[in-house]
Amino acid sequence: MPLIEVIANDRLGRKVRVKCSSNDTVGDLKKLIAAQTGTTPEKIQLKKWHTVFKDHITLGD
Predict the structure, then answer these.
(1) How many angstroms separate the CA atoms of 61 and 53, rounded?
(2) SS3 label, residue 17
(3) What are the tens digits of pLDDT across the range 18-49?
(4) Which single residue of 14, 22, 41, 48 has CA 20 to 30 Å from 55?
(5) pTM of the entire structure?
(6) Where do runs of H (alpha helix) occur along the chain?
């Protein structure tokens, strides 16, 4: 099971790199990003262009 490297931008000039599995959910990814940035996972909103990702979707999808 290969790991995926996700680069998240917090729009304040800070980029966070997180390695996670393709079986992990978006909610798990938010928890990993929150651990590195110091914000709460509830405040993190992951999007690609205008598409907002829900917490129950796996990263492999």
Answers:
(1) 11
(2) strand
(3) 999 989 999 999 999 999 988 899 999 988 88
(4) 14
(5) 0.84
(6) 26-37
